[in-house]
Design a protein that fits this description.
The protein is mainly α. It has a domain of about 60 residues: Helix Hairpins (Orthogonal Bundle). It is built from 2 helices and 2 strands, in the order ββαα. Strands 1-2 form a two-stranded antiparallel ribbon. Strand 1 and strand 2 form a beta hairpin. Helix 1 runs antiparallel to helix 2. It is elongated, with a radius of gyration of 18 Å. This is Exodeoxyribonuclease 7 small subunit. Keywords: Cytoplasm, Exonuclease, Hydrolase, Nuclease. Bidirectionally degrades single-stranded DNA into large acid-insoluble oligonucleotides, which are then degraded further into small acid-soluble oligonucleotides.
Length: about 90
């Protein structure tokens, strides 16, 4: 899903072209691969770099979503966002 095979070359989608959920799924795979430890140093560095790009892009998407929610709430007369309180934390 994340890679297009063109001949023998595997091309990964650019992080900005992935949905938030696709980025998160790919990050989970990268972490699992790196934790498993069977990756060469060069491949580990490439995966780490890809992971950083995915994280930065995902953070940007989350910030945009938060801004949209803030605008919508302001339109409804709600002043600020409140942190979500998860029971048990």
């Amino acid at each position: 899903m994340y890679r297009l095979i063109l001949g023998m070359i595997i091309v990964a989608k650019k992080p900005e072209n992935l949905s938030f959920e696709e980025s998160l799924s790919e990050l989970e795979k990268i972490v699992a691969d790196l934790e498993h430890g069977d990756v060469s140093l060069d491949d580990a560095l490439k995966q780490f770099e890809r992971g950083i790009k995915l994280v930065r892009n995902s953070q940007g998407k989350l910030e945009n979503a938060q801004q949209k929610v803030a605008v919508l709430m302001a339109d409804e007369g709600v002043d600020t966002l409140k942190p979500y309180d998860v029971e048990g934390e």
